[in-house]
Amino acid sequence: MDIDVRGPRFGAAVTTVLLAVALITTSAWLLAWQTLAFALGAAGGVGRSPYGWVFRTFVRPRIGPPLEFESPEPPRFAQAVGLLFAGVGLVGFTLGPVWLGLAATGAALGAAFLNAAFGYCLGCELYLIAQRVAVRAK
Q: Which residue ranges in the chain fall short of pLDDT 50?
């Protein structure tokens, strides 16, 4: 079942703000929350993430029905990529080195910002590349 394209973009906007604050403050707690949000989105799809729930419950009823839909697999893969970077960032912030936490969190922030501001999902593009490689490998 396809998903409303505005949901992942809303989640990316929330993620952008949260990761920016985590990066500025080097807060392992904020990054841990975002890591959990990525994990839930990767495991159950973006609709199962906390931001997907907020979008579905509070935002979507106020902005009307969707005009565009997308396949859920690329955003779900993007959540897994975000989980990887947030997890590495969390290790850097908690166990060190801090520069690792800053770099990984900054990379996740950059990707989230691209999606929130321009609708360009890096993780989704990686998913499509991986699909093409898998088809060629057969």
A: none
DSSP assignment letter at 65: S
Positive/negative CA dihedral, 17, 123, 115, 113 = positive
The residues pairing with 3 across neighbouring beta strands, listed in sequence order, are: 70
Average pLDDT, whole number, for the chain? 97
Number of H helices, E strands in the chain: 7, 2
- Tell me the C-alpha distance between 69 and 126, whole Å: 19
CB atoms within 10 A of CB 102: 16
Tokens linked to 114: 């691209």
d(CA 77, CA 79): 5
Directed axis angle between helix 28-44 and helix 6-25, to 10°?
160
CA 28 to CA 72: how far, in whole Å?
A: 29
pLDDT for position 56: 96
What pTM, to 2 d.p., does this model score?
0.95
Q: Any idea what DSSP says for residue 49?
A: S
Other Cβ atoms closer than 10 A to 15: 27
- How large a percentage of the chain has pLDDT more than 90? 97
pLDDT value at residue 138: 79
